């Protein structure tokens, strides 16, 4: 059992007895700050679970939050990390707020990833660590339904981080934009974001950057919502029903 684990056990025991965190003995200032951050993240995720988006709610009224990350590889279990993260709050296809941060990873950004994204280690030297920034990101995305292209990649990194640091995971609703795109235009397939953008002739000058891709996906989602309306898919229930009958 490592020191950090022993600290959590000790602190949680004392808190369960009603001892305020500021009164917990033998806790350094740094440990207290870390513990308070853990409590904050857990509380935020629990509150998010309580938020309910009615299935009969019209799509134009639902706050959809588009997210994207850039990562050093494809496997968080093998040490790959997020080094860029972006999100856009939208309603009825319109951009309402935008979030973007570079993140300083523990390990070097591989050269082939730097060539793809244009982001090198020197660009992130003064950026925060993911542990410093995650609470801001979670706060930004906590009041909507998150969507993205190949969103399982982004969620796998986010949930790996949350599990390793807080023993919790994101449990909110999410949608895979590729599935919605292919449901609308079946039998056509759109395995990449590039093909989806090309279909609607949407430019993306900063492709393979988190903020550039999110900005392009804001426009893509606006076009998708217009097509859903044309197909009389108007509520979240309609959308889930249409997705459920798609051939696998």
TrEMBL record:
It comes from the Bacteria. Pfam families: RNase_T. One of its GO terms (biological process) is DNA replication proofreading. CDD domains: DEDDh. One of its GO terms (molecular function) is nucleic acid binding. SMART domains: EXOIII. GO terms for cellular component: cytosol. Keywords: Exonuclease, Hydrolase, Nuclease, Nucleotidyltransferase, Transferase. SUPFAM superfamilies: Ribonuclease H-like. It is an enzyme of class 2 (transferase). This is DNA polymerase-3 subunit epsilon. It comes from Anoxybacteroides tepidamans.
């Amino acid at each position: 059992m490592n020191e950090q684990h022993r600290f959590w056990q000790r602190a949680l025991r004392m808190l369960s007895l009603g001892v305020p965190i500021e009164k917990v003995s033998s806790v350094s200032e740094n440990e207290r700050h870390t513990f308070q951050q853990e409590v904050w993240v857990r509380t935020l995720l629990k509150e998010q679970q309580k938020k309910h988006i009615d299935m009969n709610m019209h799509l134009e009224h639902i706050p959809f939050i588009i997210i994207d990350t850039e990562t050093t590889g494809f496997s968080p279990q093998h040490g790959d990390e997020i080094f860029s993260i972006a999100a856009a709050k939208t309603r009825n296809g319109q951009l309402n707020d935008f979030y973007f941060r570079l993140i300083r990873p523990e390990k070097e950004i591989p050269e082939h990833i730097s060539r793809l994204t244009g982001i090198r280690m020197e660009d992130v030297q003064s950026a925060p660590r993911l542990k410093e920034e995650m609470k801001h990101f979670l706060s930004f995305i906590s009041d909507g339904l998150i969507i993205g292209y190949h969103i399982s990649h982004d969620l796998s990194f986010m949930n790996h981080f949350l599990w390793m640091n807080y023993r919790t995971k994101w449990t909110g609703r999410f949608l895979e934009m590729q599935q919605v795109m292919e449901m609308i235009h079946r039998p056509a397939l759109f395995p990449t974001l590039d093909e989806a953008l090309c279909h609607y002739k949407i430019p993306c000058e900063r492709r393979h950057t988190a903020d550039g891709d999110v900005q392009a996906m804001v426009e893509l989602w606006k076009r998708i919502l217009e097509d859903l309306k044309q197909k009389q898919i108007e509520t979240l229930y309609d959308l889930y029903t249409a997705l459920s009958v798609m051939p696998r």
